Amino acid sequence: xxxSGSGGSRADNGYSSLPPRRRxxxxxxxxxxxxxxxxxxxxxxxxxxxxxVRAYLAKxxxxxxxxxxxxxxKFFQTGALLEILHCAFGIVPSSVVLTAFQVMSxxxxxxxxxxxxxxxxxxxxxxxxxxxxxxxxxxxxxPLSFIHFSCIQAQVQTEDSVLLFVVAWTITEIIRYSFYxxxxxxxxxxxxxxxxxxxxxxLYPMGVSGELLTIYAALPFVRQSGLYSISLxxxxxxxxxxxxxxxLVMISYIPMLDxxxxxxxxxxxxxxxxxxxx
Length: 278
Known about the structure:
Layout: H1 28-59, H2 70-79, H3 82-88, H4 96-115, H5 122-126, H6 132-141, H7 145-151, H8 160-184, H9 190-198, H10 200-225, H11 242-251, H12 254-276
Helix pairs in contact: 1-2, 1-8, 2-4, 3-4, 8-9, 8-10, 9-12, 10-11, 10-12
């Protein structure tokens, strides 16, 4: 993606592998806006990276680090929705459909999976269980282990797979937005260019693996709680099974996994071309 496409096109899901193509650049006003946007996004993901490191140093463990960067992650990942508008208004010469698909896939994982699949507590179950007030009182007085086990479901935010894709996203986005910023300014450091076409080889499978494992970890909770599912009968005569939908989402990753070896090969070739220019 050339400097003209430096507004944040997501046709590669942020994990770059292909060298940029030369295209006519945006106007002066659009360029100024894109520079500001990419600088802000770079700073935002740097905040997330620093938050992860500080939380790890404070806790001495990588478990449950998600909570230390939950708010900025949601804010800046959701902010990427602007990139769809960049394409729609022609500020960035990239496909609206491909960009929308890539942006929405991450926003979906952020909000509809990682955010939504939370702890299923006893009080939550009581809303649908007759005579549960007595059970809740008994559990508080005599916290029996079998009651705790059957009524508490671990939340997906504590899964190590969440940290896997968060780290992959964070490194990818810092490099990507930096790449776009310096490309717009016509002053691209070699180190950023190298990172853009080299670290992808690791970040792509790392991010995809984390995303798939997180969705998989959410399946038992979604099936048990009926999260976001709509059952018949209802006045709209419409049903929706979120559990099945998530399985279909996981299946949709197969084309990406199928083309991964070829994409990595192209990335290696691009990296070798960079080394040959030294």
